[in-house]
Amino acid sequence: MLQGPDHLTGSRIRERRLALGVKQGALAADVGVSPSYLNLIEHNHRRIGGKLLLELARALEVDASTLTEGVDAGISELLDAAARAMGDVPAETSRIDELVARFPGWTALIAAQEARARHLEGQIDALRDRLAHDPALAEAMHEVLSSVAAIRTTADILVKEADLDPAWRGRFHRNLHEDAERLSARATGLLAQFEAPGAGAEVSAPEETVEAMFEAEDHYFAEIETAGEAGYENAISTVLARHAGMVEGPARGRAEARLRAMARDAKRLPMAEFAPLAKGLDYDPARILDAIGGDVALILRRMASLPSDETVPPRGLAICDASGAMLHRRRVQGFALPRVAAGCPLWPLYRVMGRVGQPDMAVIETPRGARFKAWTVAQPVADQSGARSGGGARFGSLPRIEATMLVMPTTAAKESVEVIPAGPGCGTCPREGCPARR
């Protein structure tokens, strides 16, 4: 039998014939073939094309493309759903092609549910990450609990001290009222961390607002790339003006700092020169470094900022400081990057902090078996003027160090570099017995 999603035309012909209530012999006679040959076609034992395909499409009252296309997209989603299936009942992956061919509607439904499940899992991970590590949430919760404790103490005094002086009783009632108002305001502020008033819009932390802006532009800002040194500030203002939440406040400040860093990168390594070079070297950071040398972290950041087209591979980027806090990220499907908390302690992103300036390359294997090649380096970061932090010859000065990791999917079964079985972070990683688990 012919295998794979490219050879399901026969199954679709059979399903269409049965849906119309046409006998196999009648259809064979209509298109001028024997019933036995049509039976071989319908069971995917014979390839079909050309005039016979057109005749079958005419007889079955469908377009020929309906019989030959539209299956490949369903196969990958079903395989993803099968890989993520819970329980002890194994999925019948060997019959996925039959399911796709016979029940395209159910296939689309399962694929949509799989996409929805991935989206919801991402939201849950983000919320768990914020609840555990977001300092703004921790502070808001502390204020709420402090107000609750104050109200409870005051109420306890009023209940148990029946002979309080009227002046003192009035003072305690006033304190109770003020603490209750403070609790209401703090609880409202805490709620605002998760939901916005009206229309169900989300209220985001400054980091999330900035990240949403970068994701909306696919981490490529044409104005900044083409502005030239004299026009960077105007370009940055233009970018900020077209995104919500960038009028003022912490989000705008962080976005400006990040865009200025991108402008410095554009000045040092213009995209007009870098993009054709990267394409000519198959988007391999190691080969690019061999060709042009220089700043490794700069090359990794420019790789993440390449304008996407059909030739540019998917890529993710993670930048953290010496504490492990995530400063910047570009997400890539299949590789979870936490918003606030540290990621997996086995990531090369963290181990290069012990060898500043020494590039590292490894393959990270996720708990689901997907593999990503990772290029990583830790370096002193540039200050606002573009000078290297700690670059001055002053004893006792401590440079700020940041680690940068670029990840890209790899399908090679065997790699010539180290393979690291890692996860998204200990809070959500399903790996048992990991020596680095905390």
Topology:
Layout: H1 9-20, H2 24-31, H3 35-42, H4 50-59, H5 64-68, H6 72-83, H7 96-102, H8 104-133, H9 135-160, H10 166-191, H11 206-216, H12 222-227, H13 232-241, H14 250-268, H15 271-280, H16 285-292, H17 296-304, E1 316-321, E2 326-330, H18 348-351, E3 360-365, E4 371-380, E5 401-409, E6 419-421
Parallel strand pairs: 3-6
Antiparallel strand pairs: 1-2, 1-5, 3-4, 4-5
Word description of this protein:
With 438 residues, the protein is α+β, with helices and mostly antiparallel strands. Among the domains are: 5-110, lambda repressor-like DNA-binding domains (434 Repressor (Amino-terminal Domain)), CATH 1.10.260.40; 135-191; 313-438, Beta-Lactamase. The chain has 18 helices and six strands. The protein has helices at 9-20, 24-31, 35-42, 50-59, 64-68, 72-83, 96-102, 104-133, 135-160, 166-191, 206-216, 222-227, 232-241, 250-268, 271-280, 285-292, 296-304, 348-351; strands at 316-321, 326-330, 360-365, 371-380, 401-409, 419-421. Strands 2-1-5-4-3-6 form a six-stranded mixed β-sheet. A hairpin with a 4-residue loop joins strand 1 and strand 2 (326-330). Helix 6 packs across helix 8 (104-133), helix 9 (135-160) runs antiparallel to helix 10 and helix 13 (232-241) crosses helix 14. The model is unreliable at 1-6, 196-203 and 385-393 (pLDDT under 50).
